[in-house]
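TODO from last week: model Release factor glutamine methyltransferase.
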Amino acid sequence: MPPEVAQSIREALSEGALRLHEREDIREWAVRDSHLLLQHALGVSREQIMAWPERMLTPRQSAAFEHLVSERLRAVPIQYLRGQQEFYGRNFLVTPDVLIPRPETELIIDEVKRYIDPSALVMIADIGSGSGAIGVTLAAEFEMARITAADLSPAALAVTEQNAIRHHVSDRVRTFESDLFSALGERIFDYVVSNPPYIAASERDSLHPQVRDHEPELALYGGEDGFEIYTRLIPQAWKHLRPGGMLFLEIGKPGQALSANLKAWSDVYTVKDLQGLPRLIVARKP
Protein backbone atom coordinates (compact mmCIF):
# COMPACT_ATOMS: atom_id res chain seq x y z
CA MET A 1 0.00 0.00 0.00
CA PRO A 2 1.20 3.58 -0.67
CA PRO A 3 2.42 5.44 2.42
CA GLU A 4 -0.32 7.33 4.27
CA VAL A 5 1.97 10.35 4.68
CA ALA A 6 3.10 12.13 1.53
CA GLN A 7 6.74 11.46 0.67
CA SER A 8 9.43 13.48 -1.00
CA ILE A 9 11.57 12.05 -3.79
CA ARG A 10 14.43 11.65 -1.31
CA GLU A 11 12.22 9.75 1.15
CA ALA A 12 10.72 7.52 -1.55
CA LEU A 13 14.16 6.62 -2.89
CA SER A 14 15.38 5.71 0.58
CA GLU A 15 12.33 3.65 1.48
CA GLY A 16 12.36 1.88 -1.91
CA ALA A 17 16.01 0.91 -1.52
CA LEU A 18 15.42 -0.35 2.02
CA ARG A 19 12.53 -2.53 0.89
CA LEU A 20 14.44 -3.93 -2.06
CA HIS A 21 17.38 -4.68 0.20
CA GLU A 22 15.17 -7.16 2.06
CA ARG A 23 15.36 -9.66 -0.80
CA GLU A 24 18.81 -11.22 -0.79
CA ASP A 25 19.06 -12.20 -4.45
CA ILE A 26 18.36 -8.65 -5.71
CA ARG A 27 19.99 -6.82 -2.79
CA GLU A 28 23.08 -5.72 -4.74
CA TRP A 29 20.91 -3.68 -7.11
CA ALA A 30 18.60 -2.15 -4.47
CA VAL A 31 19.77 1.46 -4.73
CA ARG A 32 20.02 1.39 -8.52
CA ASP A 33 16.61 -0.21 -8.88
CA SER A 34 14.95 2.25 -6.52
CA HIS A 35 16.25 5.12 -8.67
CA LEU A 36 15.20 3.49 -11.94
CA LEU A 37 11.74 2.57 -10.70
CA LEU A 38 11.05 6.01 -9.29
CA GLN A 39 12.20 7.61 -12.54
CA HIS A 40 9.76 5.37 -14.38
CA ALA A 41 6.90 6.06 -11.95
CA LEU A 42 7.39 9.82 -12.25
CA GLY A 43 8.30 9.86 -15.94
CA VAL A 44 11.45 11.87 -15.33
CA SER A 45 15.19 11.48 -15.85
CA ARG A 46 17.84 10.63 -13.27
CA GLU A 47 19.07 14.22 -13.49
CA GLN A 48 15.61 15.52 -12.61
CA ILE A 49 15.36 13.06 -9.70
CA MET A 50 18.68 14.35 -8.34
CA ALA A 51 17.73 17.99 -8.90
CA TRP A 52 14.39 17.81 -7.05
CA PRO A 53 14.98 15.69 -3.92
CA GLU A 54 12.38 17.60 -1.87
CA ARG A 55 9.63 17.46 -4.48
CA MET A 56 6.57 15.70 -3.03
CA LEU A 57 5.00 12.72 -4.75
CA THR A 58 1.31 12.76 -5.57
CA PRO A 59 -0.83 9.87 -4.29
CA ARG A 60 -0.95 8.43 -7.81
CA GLN A 61 2.84 8.60 -8.15
CA SER A 62 3.31 6.97 -4.76
CA ALA A 63 0.94 4.16 -5.72
CA ALA A 64 2.75 3.62 -9.03
CA PHE A 65 6.13 3.46 -7.29
CA GLU A 66 4.79 1.11 -4.61
CA HIS A 67 3.49 -1.24 -7.29
CA LEU A 68 6.83 -1.28 -9.12
CA VAL A 69 8.77 -1.97 -5.93
CA SER A 70 6.37 -4.80 -5.02
CA GLU A 71 6.82 -6.36 -8.46
CA ARG A 72 10.59 -6.06 -8.22
CA LEU A 73 10.40 -7.85 -4.86
CA ARG A 74 8.91 -10.77 -6.81
CA ALA A 75 12.14 -10.68 -8.86
CA VAL A 76 10.40 -9.33 -11.94
CA PRO A 77 13.30 -8.01 -14.06
CA ILE A 78 13.78 -4.26 -13.94
CA GLN A 79 13.72 -4.21 -17.75
CA TYR A 80 10.18 -5.62 -17.86
CA LEU A 81 8.99 -3.17 -15.22
CA ARG A 82 10.40 -0.24 -17.19
CA GLY A 83 9.53 -1.79 -20.56
CA GLN A 84 12.92 -1.09 -22.06
CA GLN A 85 16.53 -2.18 -22.40
CA GLU A 86 19.51 -0.51 -24.05
CA PHE A 87 21.26 -2.47 -26.79
CA TYR A 88 24.11 -1.21 -28.95
CA GLY A 89 23.35 2.38 -28.00
CA ARG A 90 19.64 2.16 -28.76
CA ASN A 91 16.65 1.82 -26.49
CA PHE A 92 14.53 -1.27 -27.19
CA LEU A 93 11.03 -2.10 -26.06
CA VAL A 94 10.96 -5.33 -24.04
CA THR A 95 8.02 -7.26 -22.63
CA PRO A 96 7.75 -10.59 -20.79
CA ASP A 97 7.20 -12.16 -24.24
CA VAL A 98 10.86 -11.67 -25.20
CA LEU A 99 14.28 -12.44 -23.82
CA ILE A 100 15.96 -9.36 -22.38
CA PRO A 101 18.86 -8.35 -24.68
CA ARG A 102 22.25 -8.87 -23.03
CA PRO A 103 25.46 -6.90 -23.59
CA GLU A 104 27.33 -10.01 -24.78
CA THR A 105 24.92 -10.35 -27.70
CA GLU A 106 26.37 -7.11 -29.06
CA LEU A 107 29.35 -9.25 -30.13
CA ILE A 108 27.22 -10.45 -33.05
CA ILE A 109 26.87 -6.87 -34.30
CA ASP A 110 30.60 -6.24 -33.89
CA GLU A 111 31.53 -9.34 -35.87
CA VAL A 112 29.04 -8.73 -38.69
CA LYS A 113 30.47 -5.23 -39.05
CA ARG A 114 33.88 -6.76 -39.75
CA TYR A 115 32.58 -8.40 -42.92
CA ILE A 116 29.64 -6.44 -44.28
CA ASP A 117 30.06 -3.99 -47.15
CA PRO A 118 27.98 -0.93 -46.16
CA SER A 119 27.44 -0.02 -49.81
CA ALA A 120 26.13 -3.45 -50.87
CA LEU A 121 22.61 -4.77 -50.67
CA VAL A 122 22.70 -7.62 -48.13
CA MET A 123 20.06 -10.10 -47.09
CA ILE A 124 20.20 -11.06 -43.39
CA ALA A 125 18.15 -13.66 -41.54
CA ASP A 126 17.67 -13.10 -37.80
CA ILE A 127 16.50 -16.48 -36.54
CA GLY A 128 14.70 -16.38 -33.20
CA SER A 129 14.45 -12.61 -33.37
CA GLY A 130 12.74 -12.06 -30.01
CA SER A 131 12.79 -8.34 -29.33
CA GLY A 132 14.48 -7.75 -32.69
CA ALA A 133 17.57 -6.35 -30.99
CA ILE A 134 19.98 -8.02 -33.43
CA GLY A 135 18.07 -7.61 -36.68
CA VAL A 136 16.77 -4.11 -36.00
CA THR A 137 20.24 -2.97 -34.93
CA LEU A 138 21.78 -4.32 -38.14
CA ALA A 139 19.08 -2.57 -40.18
CA ALA A 140 19.77 0.67 -38.32
CA GLU A 141 23.54 0.34 -38.76
CA PHE A 142 23.42 -0.55 -42.47
CA GLU A 143 21.00 1.22 -44.79
CA MET A 144 21.39 -1.44 -47.47
CA ALA A 145 20.56 -4.33 -45.14
CA ARG A 146 17.27 -6.19 -45.61
CA ILE A 147 16.27 -8.19 -42.55
CA THR A 148 14.11 -11.30 -42.35
CA ALA A 149 13.16 -11.76 -38.70
CA ALA A 150 11.81 -15.20 -37.81
CA ASP A 151 10.40 -16.35 -34.50
CA LEU A 152 8.05 -19.08 -33.32
CA SER A 153 6.26 -16.64 -30.99
CA PRO A 154 3.71 -14.22 -32.54
CA ALA A 155 3.94 -12.08 -29.39
CA ALA A 156 7.72 -11.80 -29.79
CA LEU A 157 7.33 -10.85 -33.45
CA ALA A 158 4.97 -8.06 -32.41
CA VAL A 159 7.77 -6.66 -30.24
CA THR A 160 10.24 -6.96 -33.14
CA GLU A 161 7.82 -4.99 -35.32
CA GLN A 162 7.38 -2.28 -32.69
CA ASN A 163 11.13 -1.93 -32.31
CA ALA A 164 11.56 -1.71 -36.08
CA ILE A 165 9.07 1.16 -36.09
CA ARG A 166 10.76 2.78 -33.10
CA HIS A 167 14.11 2.80 -34.89
CA HIS A 168 12.71 3.79 -38.30
CA VAL A 169 13.63 0.60 -40.14
CA SER A 170 10.23 -1.08 -40.48
CA ASP A 171 10.44 -0.80 -44.27
CA ARG A 172 13.51 -3.06 -44.20
CA VAL A 173 12.50 -5.59 -41.55
CA ARG A 174 10.03 -8.35 -42.44
CA THR A 175 8.74 -10.72 -39.79
CA PHE A 176 7.75 -14.36 -40.17
CA GLU A 177 6.15 -16.69 -37.65
CA SER A 178 8.48 -19.59 -38.19
CA ASP A 179 10.15 -22.52 -36.46
CA LEU A 180 13.71 -21.61 -37.48
CA PHE A 181 13.62 -21.49 -41.32
CA SER A 182 10.44 -23.54 -41.80
CA ALA A 183 8.30 -20.64 -43.09
CA LEU A 184 11.02 -18.97 -45.15
CA GLY A 185 10.60 -21.06 -48.28
CA GLU A 186 13.61 -21.02 -50.61
CA ARG A 187 14.98 -17.65 -49.48
CA ILE A 188 18.75 -17.32 -49.67
CA PHE A 189 20.75 -15.03 -47.40
CA ASP A 190 24.19 -13.45 -47.20
CA TYR A 191 24.25 -13.65 -43.40
CA VAL A 192 22.41 -15.65 -40.77
CA VAL A 193 22.50 -14.33 -37.21
CA SER A 194 20.97 -15.96 -34.16
CA ASN A 195 20.96 -16.01 -30.38
CA PRO A 196 19.09 -19.30 -29.94
CA PRO A 197 17.98 -20.87 -26.65
CA TYR A 198 21.05 -22.61 -25.23
CA ILE A 199 20.44 -23.27 -21.53
CA ALA A 200 20.19 -26.96 -20.69
CA ALA A 201 16.88 -27.93 -19.10
CA SER A 202 18.87 -29.57 -16.31
CA GLU A 203 20.32 -26.17 -15.38
CA ARG A 204 16.92 -24.57 -14.77
CA ASP A 205 17.10 -24.62 -10.99
CA SER A 206 20.51 -22.92 -10.99
CA LEU A 207 19.22 -19.83 -12.78
CA HIS A 208 18.52 -16.58 -10.96
CA PRO A 209 14.78 -16.30 -10.18
CA GLN A 210 14.47 -13.16 -12.30
CA VAL A 211 15.51 -15.27 -15.29
CA ARG A 212 13.98 -18.63 -14.40
CA ASP A 213 10.61 -17.33 -13.23
CA HIS A 214 10.02 -14.45 -15.61
CA GLU A 215 11.81 -14.70 -18.97
CA PRO A 216 10.09 -16.85 -21.63
CA GLU A 217 11.04 -20.52 -21.48
CA LEU A 218 10.84 -20.73 -25.27
CA ALA A 219 13.78 -18.30 -25.47
CA LEU A 220 15.83 -19.88 -22.68
CA TYR A 221 16.01 -23.65 -22.94
CA GLY A 222 17.72 -25.64 -25.67
CA GLY A 223 16.68 -29.13 -24.68
CA GLU A 224 18.28 -31.42 -22.13
CA ASP A 225 21.86 -30.57 -23.08
CA GLY A 226 21.36 -27.04 -24.41
CA PHE A 227 22.38 -27.97 -27.98
CA GLU A 228 19.03 -29.12 -29.40
CA ILE A 229 18.36 -25.95 -31.40
CA TYR A 230 21.88 -25.83 -32.84
CA THR A 231 21.60 -29.34 -34.27
CA ARG A 232 18.60 -28.13 -36.31
CA LEU A 233 19.63 -24.54 -36.95
CA ILE A 234 23.12 -25.09 -38.37
CA PRO A 235 22.09 -27.52 -41.16
CA GLN A 236 19.13 -25.32 -42.06
CA ALA A 237 21.34 -22.23 -42.17
CA TRP A 238 23.61 -24.06 -44.62
CA LYS A 239 20.68 -24.58 -47.00
CA HIS A 240 19.65 -20.93 -46.83
CA LEU A 241 23.07 -19.30 -47.18
CA ARG A 242 24.68 -18.46 -50.49
CA PRO A 243 28.17 -19.85 -51.11
CA GLY A 244 30.50 -17.62 -49.11
CA GLY A 245 27.65 -16.62 -46.81
CA MET A 246 28.31 -16.40 -43.09
CA LEU A 247 26.74 -17.71 -39.91
CA PHE A 248 26.96 -15.88 -36.56
CA LEU A 249 25.71 -17.84 -33.54
CA GLU A 250 25.73 -16.90 -29.90
CA ILE A 251 26.59 -19.89 -27.70
CA GLY A 252 26.48 -20.72 -24.02
CA LYS A 253 29.38 -23.15 -24.14
CA PRO A 254 31.38 -25.13 -26.71
CA GLY A 255 30.42 -28.74 -27.27
CA GLN A 256 30.72 -31.78 -29.49
CA ALA A 257 27.25 -31.15 -30.90
CA LEU A 258 28.45 -27.81 -32.26
CA SER A 259 31.70 -29.17 -33.66
CA ALA A 260 29.98 -32.09 -35.39
CA ASN A 261 27.52 -29.80 -37.16
CA LEU A 262 30.21 -27.38 -38.31
CA LYS A 263 32.59 -29.87 -39.95
CA ALA A 264 31.61 -28.87 -43.49
CA TRP A 265 31.98 -25.16 -42.80
CA SER A 266 35.13 -23.13 -43.35
CA ASP A 267 36.84 -20.30 -41.44
CA VAL A 268 35.20 -21.39 -38.20
CA TYR A 269 36.26 -19.48 -35.08
CA THR A 270 34.94 -18.42 -31.69
CA VAL A 271 34.82 -14.99 -30.10
CA LYS A 272 35.18 -14.57 -26.34
CA ASP A 273 33.15 -12.20 -24.21
CA LEU A 274 34.54 -9.77 -21.64
CA GLN A 275 34.77 -12.60 -19.10
CA GLY A 276 36.98 -14.58 -21.44
CA LEU A 277 34.28 -17.18 -22.18
CA PRO A 278 33.46 -18.42 -25.72
CA ARG A 279 30.31 -16.53 -26.63
CA LEU A 280 30.05 -16.48 -30.42
CA ILE A 281 30.75 -18.90 -33.25
CA VAL A 282 31.39 -17.53 -36.73
CA ALA A 283 31.49 -19.81 -39.78
CA ARG A 284 31.51 -19.44 -43.56
CA LYS A 285 29.74 -21.65 -46.06
CA PRO A 286 32.34 -22.62 -48.69
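Done. The longest strand covers residues 241-250.
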